[in-house]
Amino acid sequence: MTLVAGFILSLNRSPNCSWKIINQIPKEWKKIDRRYLYQMLKEFKQDRLISYREISTGEIEIVITEAGKKAVLRYDVDQMELTISKHWDKLWRLVFFDIPEKKRYQRDQFRDKLKELGFIELQHSVWVIPYPCKKEIDFLVEFFEIRNYTRFAEATNLTNETDLRLKFEV
To answer: What pLDDT shows up at residue 17?
Structure first.
């Protein structure tokens, strides 16, 4: 519970909104898919983003590690940037999405973030960039709650890629 609340609050900037989130946690806790939560915690532990600590009462506390704190800071949506290496690895990163109208706001925000990160639209809802970005895209997809509507791929060849190579200077 501490991890979930801490993570949510770390993404939030408004103190007033933080209290609203805290007050909603008990109600929302009942709606959480426990299996999914435990799977995510297992992955966070494997990635050394969290650790467990036994409390004297026999309860287990989830603690965000230093690596976890850095990951939270790294993926601040407003400050997110991609790392651009000097040598291109000859892989194109493609993001495909078909987000329904009922999630129009998330779709528009996701598209705007792709543009901000430097992606170029190949065709409607297909975006490309030559830089590693899988973790960032995974984060955005979860942040905007569009996992079921979004795909990520890495490709070695694209037809007519010369114009893309010129635009990205790779």
So the answer is: 53
Domains of the chain: 2-74 (1.10.10), 79-168 (3.30.70.240)
Residue 37's alpha-carbon distances to 4, 43, 118, in angstroms, are 9, 10, 32
Strand ranges inside the chain, DSSP E: 50-54, 60-64, 92-97, 120-123, 126-129, 150-155
Residue 168 confidence (pLDDT) above 90: yes
- For residues 114 and 118, give the distance between their C-alpha atoms in angstroms, rounded to a whole number: 6
Structure tokens that stand for 15 in this block: 């103190």
Q: Letter for the amino acid at 107?
A: R
| All residues at 6 or more sequence positions from 9 whose CB lies less than 8 Å from its CB, including other chains | 18, 21, 22
Using DSSP, state whether 42 is helix, strand or coil: helix
Query: At CA 106, angle to CA 114 and CA 120, rounded to 5?
Result: 20
pLDDT digits (tens, 9 = 90+) for 127-139: 999 999 998 998 8
| pLDDT interval class at 76 (50, 70, 90) | confident
- Asked if 131 contacts 113 with a C-beta cutoff of 8 angstroms, the reply is no
CB–CB of 156/91 below 8 Å?
A: yes
Q: Is the confidence at residue 69, as pLDDT, over 80?
A: no
